[in-house]
Design goal:
The protein is of the alpha/beta class. It has helices at residues 16-27, 40-52, 67-81, 104-132, 143-147, 153-173, 191-194, 198-206, 216-227, and strands at 7-10, 31-36, 57-61, 86-89, 135-140, 178-185, 238-241. α4 (104-132) links the parallel β4 (86-89) and β5 (135-140). α1 packs across α9 (216-227), α3 (67-81) runs parallel beside α4 (104-132) and α4 (104-132) packs parallel to α6 (153-173). Bound molecules: NADP nicotinamide-adenine-dinucleotide phosphate.
Length: 247
Amino acid sequence: MRFEGRCVVITGATRGIGRACALAFAKEGAGLVLTYASSEKAAEEVKEECEKTGAETVFVKADVSKEEDVAKVFETAIEKFGRVDVLVNNAGITKDNILLRMKTEEFDDVIDTNLKGSFLCMRAASKIMLKKRYGRIVNLSSVVGVRGNAGQLNYSASKAGVIGMTKSLAKELAAKNITVNAVAPGMIETDMTAAMPEGAREEMKKMIPAKRIGKSEDVARAICFLAEEGSGYITGQVLCVDGGMAV
Ligand code: NAP
């Protein structure tokens, strides 16, 4: 029960990696503040699953790119739990295209959700964490933020940006007992990768030394490790969970 008495905020917890994280934290005693953008039914199902483990769970509808929505998430955490110990910046989207076909909105939407959304949540969470002099922030980057990928320049810019923000904030908060780390998943079996064309999936799979696509639970395990109290001397790091892809 590594997270007994802790309040964990996870953005985008309706499916995929966010959902797996919510269940992993719930099983280890955390109180949960989870967010969804539009999948209300899925949110209700995840809430039920988490509550089965005994975890107090609240879902907030919030677009992470909107400052007022993010404020609502952290107000809810304070009302319910009086604290925020862990933030997992998981909400993310892709809008893939090659540069010459990429619309400005496709670029802006991905940057707004993945990069600005993480910034807004880190700023709101840090304010609360600083008062308690305790915090663990885990940001979702990607192997694509480390290596780049043709057809994903907006997404790779957002995920490389997440790494930059992680390292900078880690330095700002290291002396306050607040760690900031990133997890960079490779190819993980979720709705996001299911949307890829079959040919692209097969090509990508060839690039994985482990010769298998990862599971959301593989990523959740790494996130929980960075979020636990005992990981307090690890900060500003990027942990690749990718079957060796980024090596
Ligand atoms: P996913 O299955 O597509 O789920 C995305 C989640 O984000 C959903 O809960 C969605 O909520 C939420 N969301 C989307 N836009 C949002 C917004 N504007 N505000 C708030 N929430 C929003 O994604 P995933 O594959 O689990 O990926 C999770 C994270 O890991 C992302 O940051 C992704 O970039 C990163 N990642 C994934 C992979 C992979 O292979 N899957 C690899 C590297 C990195 P609704 O359901 O309500 O829309």
